[in-house]
Amino acid sequence: MLEVTRSTEAHDRAAQRGAADAKPTSRAPQRWLAALSPVLSVRLVSLLEVFTRAMVFPQSHARRERPMQGHIRKRSKGSWEYIIDIGPHPAQRCSACHRRFWVERRPKGECPKCGGRLTETEERRRQTKAGFATRKEAQVAMNKTLVAVEEHTYVAPTHLSLRNYLTNEWLPAIESTIRASTFRSYKQHVECHICPHIGSVQMQKLSGSAINALYAKLAVSGKRDAKTGLSALSIRHTHATLHRALKDAVRWERTTRNPADAADPPRVAGGGHEMKTWDARQLAAFLTATRSDRLGGLWHLLAMTGMRRGEALGLPWEDVDLEAGRISVRRALIPNGKVVVVSEPKTARGRRSIALDPETILVLREQAARQLSDQQRKGNEWRDTGLVFTKEDGEAWHPEVASRFFRQAVRRVALPTIRLHDLRHTHATLALRAGIHPKVVSERLGHATISITLDTYSHAIPAMQEEAAARIAELVFSCDTA
């Protein structure tokens, strides 16, 4: 024990001697600098001291980069609040009134207060939250917020209303990314069903119960006359629009959660629109009775290829090869109010090639002859759109007008009422019941996956199962076992 004590004391004395020896050495540069001019020597000594301090005390730099923190204080009314520093945030400063505006989603074009020019900058932002009954409650809430800031999941509170978000941010942002018809549906849901009822609610305070109350109100008085309610399917479509809008809000860091996840839209009996189809005899009777109609060729093409309405109306002659008996689907006509716009097919697999039967090729040749006669009769009034199905002056048909003419034709022929889109369902159902492989049917329809075909036309599967059972039994028991 004594030896250890002596050893420690010797070590301390050696350290003191080393420090004493090093002291004159550290002053040597200063004595050398004193030989220079007084002003230059003072400046160099100052720079040397700054450099030495930075090398000896690097922890001062570490203190400046410590994690963000906050503090708690008591308000005059007895409640508590916390204030945190959430770090640098994009901002804009007005060059005229010097007001600051935080950039949430899109920068402002000019100062909302004075109309001055705004300069983009980045400033540290502090966030305050009050209303806590005790200091402990404020401390717990502040700690949770600081963790969210560190994990980059924090969303600053905002008074943004649902109406302001949907109309000024969400709809303009998605308009160029979706089909015109889809955007029109979204806009209709927002303007007619969502904003009139819950548009004034702050988006970050929107709850699942408030959305359920909206759906209940729409079911009673959701139509324009406010006397009748929307169908369950229409309410589900509204729910899908609201859910997507709030999902984008979470992705854009406008809110931390999607309250539509907690909502319960009504169930749709039978899975939506009832699928009505014709059998082969009914379809043949309709096509024969409407062969000479101006849109008779359109009905025939839809029924024999399974094309969508917009795909057939947007089909140009350059995508029709009557010699090879094939058509290429590369675009579609989509209604956008009273006008039509050209769009891509509904899915990636919607761009496809479809084989034609001889009768359909003959119908298309008749359509070409009819169109040539219209062109000669109209002369300079003819509009060369290049489309297969046009009006007498060459203009494209509006899809809704084509659907109206189809309903009139069905009533005239006195067949069970179906929609124009049901010709597509009729084509798929007849093909599956004829034993055509579902993969081939899926390719003709342009479905994204074969599972969509099987799920949509499951009503045709039982007949295929029975036929498969009979064929397998015939194959097995017809074998000669002798």
UniProtKB/TrEMBL annotation:
Residues 273-470 form the Tyr recombinase domain. The keyword Cell inner membrane does not apply. One of its GO terms (molecular function) is DNA binding. Residues 1-28 are annotated as: Disordered. InterPro entries: DNA_brk_join_enz, Integrase-like_cat_sf, Integrase_catalytic, Integrase_recombinase_N, Integrase_SAM-like_N, Tyrosine_recombinase_XerCD. It comes from the Bacteria. Residues 1-15 have a biased composition (Basic and acidic residues). Belongs to the 'phage' integrase family. This is Site-specific integrase.
